[in-house]
Amino acid sequence: MRKGEETRTRILDVAEAAVLQKGFGGTSIEELIAETGITKSGFFYHFRDKNELAKALLNRYIENDERIYDEIFSRARELTDDPLQSFLLGLKLLSELLSDLPNGHPGCLVAGICYYERLFDREIQEINRNAVLAWRRRFGRMIRDIVAVYPLREPVDVDQLADMVSSVLEGGIVLSKTLKEPNTLAEQVLMLRTFVKMLFLPVAEMPKASSGSAFNGGAEPH
Hints:
Helices cover 69% and strands 0% of the residues. By secondary structure, the chain is mainly alpha-helical.
């Protein structure tokens, strides 16, 4: 990596950590300059203004999220051709990944931009919106594959169920940070996994909960 690319990456790393901790409104260019040890002109060489920095941060964050989802759910599909079992396994793998974060999930830039959207231009707002719609399409495709094989036990809108994945992830982050309980997010993903089981599997096929576990969320489906 060239020096210029290293500097840009360093700025983005420091800015992301600051924004996730304090929000966009509470993060100043001056503190980023001080933290990275570059000159003011050096900062503006890479980013014309704070809006351009936010755009770069958001695009990088979305690309990383997409990469993680691709890896996790592709791995799940390699392990089983059954669409329901694959989706449930993917959620289990995602939960395990989240539980391995030593201090919990640091936060979500997509949500952060939504909270402070008046700080940003229409282009950034549209990138943010498209990211959420892309997640809806991603999980919606998986759920439609399940519906083609397993009848729903309750009438549910597929897109709303797909959005529920994002809602649980975002809400789990808020709960984890508010309660200062890092594992809450992973537990919420497992609870979503149990809910999906209940939507598709007949009662007779639902695994019995073992003593002390919530709906047997960590067990593999039968």
